[in-house]
Amino acid sequence: MKIVCNRTDLVSGVSIVSKAVSNKTTLPILECILIEASAGTITLTANDMELGIETNIEGNILEQGKIALDAKLFFEIVRKLPDNDVTIETDSDYKATITCEKACFHIVGQEGSEFPYLPEIEKEKSITLSQFTLKEVIRQTIFSISDNENNKLMTGELFEVEDNKLNVVSLDGHRISIRNIELKESFDSFKVVVPGKTLQEITKIISGDAEKDVIIYVTNKHILFEFDQTRVVSRLLEGEYYKISQMLSSDYETKITINKKEFLDCIDRASLLIRESDKKPIVINITDNSLELNISSFFGSMEENILIQKEGRDILIGFNPKFLMDVLRVIDDEEINIYLVNPKAPCFIKDSSESYIYLILPVNFNH
Amino acid sequence: MKIVCNRTDLVSGVSIVSKAVSNKTTLPILECILIEASAGTITLTANDMELGIETNIEGNILEQGKIALDAKLFFEIVRKLPDNDVTIETDSDYKATITCEKACFHIVGQEGSEFPYLPEIEKEKSITLSQFTLKEVIRQTIFSISDNENNKLMTGELFEVEDNKLNVVSLDGHRISIRNIELKESFDSFKVVVPGKTLQEITKIISGDAEKDVIIYVTNKHILFEFDQTRVVSRLLEGEYYKISQMLSSDYETKITINKKEFLDCIDRASLLIRESDKKPIVINITDNSLELNISSFFGSMEENILIQKEGRDILIGFNPKFLMDVLRVIDDEEINIYLVNPKAPCFIKDSSESYIYLILPVNFNH
């Protein structure tokens, strides 16, 4: 194989596929990036057997072929090369020579044909949405997946399509995050659970450009994201996702409207007095036009008042401050509505059109 | 005590003195910041018994007094307060109430009079230089102190003054860094060894402004840096510093002039193929108008040529790449001169006026 490509293109391509390089594996080839030059296309591929990414880069192919190179070393080398044309040439012993201006590296690779190809995905069911929307949806839900591998399904997110609606859900047993998106057209229905890791890596790669699309294809076992010059394939999580409809209710006893930033800053200050391990709740006392927040711990105590609009009954309720902050940080609205029933029942933070719904369970507290 | 001051002033003051808060101590009071309001001045002090910092901040004193507050918690609280006036009030049980807008914190402090005051420094011997110069001098020498506590003097830097010359030296047994500064006027001679940690903290605090001065006072035991509203007092390291004059020589067999950035980038690339633990040298082959760098390791090999100007003999010599990079990173000149004698003798990197001199010992290598 002999190819010439621009260092900037190479760096951005390697940076994209690197997200799927395995870092704990017994198969050394999975620590590599496959470079393949054939039929006018240079393709970079990485695959940790759960998640696979391939991307095409610009360049001249002087001799077709393929080689698998250690991902970390190869990435470091191309990043540190001068910003100019890079030539990659391999010999029959899988030795690669990487030349750029007067710098010349020799590293030993592995046979390209040993590299596991990405699974072929049947392109039957798909949806199209903008990179911006996908990135937002992930950001606004990913924080409430669980990292407990015993509840495998909780480590992923539900992507459910019906007609022109996309419904994305994550939950961890203490809270539920829901985003409802209206798609530009109707698509065939599907319901899949995508691993959280896949979504975290996808958001790092997609640009967040509202003008650029992502096409998402699903099969029984896999999901494929196609955008720009890149394809990301991931296994799906298997099993029936939690039925959340019976947990959602629009009944409430108290509804408040509060300035999001004021509320977030106030909880942020209060949580200074708590160490994660304490599990100390913050206590919120809602009366007419006033929300009073109280916290008392080994380190000291704090109280603060915020002006609110209130409908319905007064209520005194405790929360894990982190759960409230996680939600407040991802909502873009300046004013938000919070719906409460009683100190044992979940509270809801949602907008009037229910484009987002966040459910948070309260915490017991001592008066 | 009751004081009112602006949150921004408070944050910047606490941030400055926090650099002297002890984080491993058996004396809990050393984990505190002393706030003292008396005679029209609000002073913040921290002191880990090696290094002490005090700074004055603006504010209104409604009631004189003092209190010691846990530095970490107090800093976190003031950082997260709204940007407005902050009132700090203490009661007879050393409980402090910190109020800002509607937020109100209560934390328990300690008796201010138990806090160890900074030593009084006799202001007999001093020099004055700009904050910019002091910051530069430290940046350009601090990397070659030793972190080995067995050679206590090597963990500090020599500050030697004679007439209008300031000479700053650091060394770690493999290399020496020297900066020679011409002061604006002549001062009484002195020769002290300042702990590296003190210098590292000082550079974080001083602004680097060429228009602002630092006055440095020395006694037998202490050094005091005075600038802006701040005083930093540190113990000195005791003992006779290494005599370096006999290690410096202006004889050479080979002199080269090389582009600093090209040389640095080239070594940076080459060092990709080395892990710190390897202790692999880079090998430099200097011939007429050409410097060829070679490295070969378990990971691969690399070679690169750089155009140079050369006087004198050809030479083949090995170096620890980190030592060369540390020096090249802090020199501002675009073109640098390197002086070599033979593959066993130290090389010198210095400018013609010797405002900087860097000595680096070479490393043995196998052909």
UniProtKB/TrEMBL annotation, chains A, B:
Domain DNA polymerase III beta sliding clamp C-terminal per the UniProt entry, residue ranges: 248-363
GO molecular function, one term: DNA binding
SMART domains: POL3Bc
InterPro entries: DNA_clamp_sf (IPR046938), DNA_polIII_beta (IPR001001), DNA_polIII_beta_C (IPR022635), DNA_polIII_beta_cen (IPR022637), DNA_polIII_beta_N (IPR022634)
Keywords for the protein's UniProt record, in alphabetical order: Cytoplasm, DNA replication, DNA-binding, DNA-directed DNA polymerase, Nucleotidyltransferase, Transferase
PANTHER family: BETA SLIDING CLAMP (PTHR30478:SF0), DNA POLYMERASE III SUBUNIT BETA (PTHR30478)
Record-given protein name: Beta sliding clamp
Native organism: Anaerostipes rhamnosivorans
